[in-house]
Amino acid sequence: MSTKQGKQTYTNDRKVYIKETAAIVGPREKEGPLGEYFDEVQQEAFDEKTWEKAEAKFATAAFQKLLGKIDKKTDDIDCILAGDLMNQCIASSIGLRDSGIPYLGLFGACSTIAEGMTTASFLINSGGMNNIICMASSNFCSAEKTFRMPVEQGGQRPPTAQWTVTASGGLLISSESGGPMITSVTIGKITDYNVTDSNNMGAAMAPAAADTIIAHLSDLGLEAGYYDAIITGDLGLTGSGMLREILDMHGYSLYDSEKGCFIHQDCGAMIFDPIKQNTNSGGSGCGCGTAVLANYFYKQLQYGILKKILFVGTGALMSPISVKQSESISGIAHAVAIEAQ
Question: CATH code for 2-174?
Answer without folding.
Answer: 3.40.47.40
